[in-house]
Amino acid sequence: xxxxxxxxxxxxxxxxxxxxxxxxxxxxxxxxxxxxxxxxxxxxxxxxxxxxxxxxxxxxxxxxxxxxxxxxxxxxxxxxxxxxxxxxxxxxxxxxxxxxxxxxxxxxxxxxxxxxxxxxxxxxxxxxxxxxxxxxxxxxxxxxxxxxxxxxxxxxxxxxxxxxxxxxxxxxxxxxxxxxxxxxxxxxxxxxxxxxxxxxxxxxxxxxxxxxxxxxxxxxxxxxxxxxxxxxxxxxxxxxxxxxxxxxxxxxxxxxxxxxxxxxxxxxxxxxxxxxxxxxxxxxxxxxxxxxxxxxxxxxxxxxxxxxxxxxxxxxxxxxxxxxxxxxxxxxxxxxxxxxxxxxxxxxxxxxxxxxxxxxxxxxx
Length: 365
Prior knowledge:
The chain has helices at residues 20-31, 38-59, 67-76, 117-128, 152-166, 178-182, 215-226, 230-252, 254-257, 261-269, 279-298, 300-307, 327-332, 353-356, and strands at 83-84, 102-108, 133-135, 145-150, 184-187, 190-196. By secondary structure, the chain is α+β, with helices and mostly antiparallel strands.
């Protein structure tokens, strides 16, 4: 059983001056504890809150350019190292002109180095399916691996396969990672978002629906946001996301939302949308129609690019899936890190965002 004596004097932990290395070690020590009494559980929750707050401070430190990548390096010894699959094999799924930036992609919080055993195992798994991906290389703060998939149905299927095959070793991204702020969780350890073409999705909503816009439009969006109070900003942001959602749904259909648009809206918008048929929802639909007509009239090139986003798409060939490993094989292939990644990062949830970290202005809501 792990030593829990430090809990007796946990109030004396100097969180003000604690180093990142010591914070990571403390987090691992906390997560190694089990079989605790209720009084100890209360102490653990207090420590976790302090840890989360301190990670929030480190995230904005100019001395730590990428917090999550640095944490991975502290734990495993692997430095970030760029890798792009298309430098290794020809991207056969792009033979018909489709681009990996046209549609859904997902992010994994793996160690951002292909020499790490788990990272390499997942990369090889993706190469076998002809799925383009990159490791590190522009991914930041938790986006150790970016996987370019395309359709929503293929994205959901692949996410389930990855979770089922590697989920016992994949860390769930903690609250300070970028994907938790920018995307929607498709599986416990997997976050994803929709990209309407290369370079066309900034700023973005924090539910993973990319927005269209030129630099001038982006400046107008951010200016408008800055003039609204919190309640107005929330309603305006939901409408902005809904405008784009309705546009993509109309022009791309199931490529964008899968087999069930109602289930899709429930997952990505939750209770942010008023009930269908209500006066408020009707007004939102009317606003979305105005948005579409304005785009079609004033920016026909962008409108046409969305219409053609899935042109030439080659679906993932899941018949190439390798046989699943037996449990004994999985246990025998555990990674020899400085600590196991099984549960150590499963501390914070998306609901912790407002409690622990400041809102980031570049995301709409």
